[in-house]
């Protein structure tokens, strides 16, 4: 299975973006899927996760992600999403999709928030 993330870009403070992660060569069934992000010079950090079967979601407690970001999935399209709202400059990072237990990663998509 390969993961392909897309949807990043250069936006301004307060804007929104929707990131997508598509799987090729397999499906996400029976797994949890997640998004991590890595800001310049910092470690990769957990953002959100979703159970593919139940749709239960989990968000990072720190970084004020909860309430601004929404993780979702489209089972028919085998695609994972991350909706980013009210973006701040500190959200600038490369965003990666991954499959639990976080041993399969996509290539990342750059999100840059300009103030």
Summary?
0% of the residues lie in helices and 53% in strands.
Write structural notes for this entry.
It is a single chain. By secondary structure, the protein is mainly beta. Helix content is 0%, strand content 53%. It has no helices and eleven strands. The chain has strands at 2-6, 9-12, 17-24, 32-38, 45-51, 57-59, 69-74, 79-84, 93-99, 104-105, 109-114. The radius of gyration is 13 Å and the shape is globular.
Q: Structural class from helices and strands?
A: mainly beta
- Relative strand content: over 45%
pLDDT < 50 stretches: none
Query: What is the overall pLDDT average?
Result: 93
Shape designation? globular
What's the topology here?
Layout: E1 2-6, E2 9-12, E3 17-24, E4 32-38, E5 45-51, E6 57-59, E7 69-74, E8 79-84, E9 93-99, E10 104-105, E11 109-114
Parallel strand pairs: 2-11
Antiparallel strand pairs: 1-3, 3-8, 4-5, 4-9, 5-6, 7-8, 9-10, 9-11
């Amino acid at each position: 299975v390969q993961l392909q993330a897309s949807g990043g870009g250069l936006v301004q403070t307060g804007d929104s973006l929707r990131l997508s992660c598509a799987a090729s060569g397999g499906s996400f069934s029976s797994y949890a899927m997640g998004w991590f992000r890595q800001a310049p010079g910092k470690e990769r950090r957990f953002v959100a996760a979703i159970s593919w079967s139940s749709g239960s979601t989990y968000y990072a407690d720190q970084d004020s992600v909860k309430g601004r970001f929404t993780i979702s999935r489209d089972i028919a399209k085998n695609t994972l999403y991350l909706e980013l709202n009210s973006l701040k400059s500190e959200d600038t990072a490369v965003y990666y999709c991954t499959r639990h237990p976080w041993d399969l990663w996509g290539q990342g998509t750059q999100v840059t928030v300009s103030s």
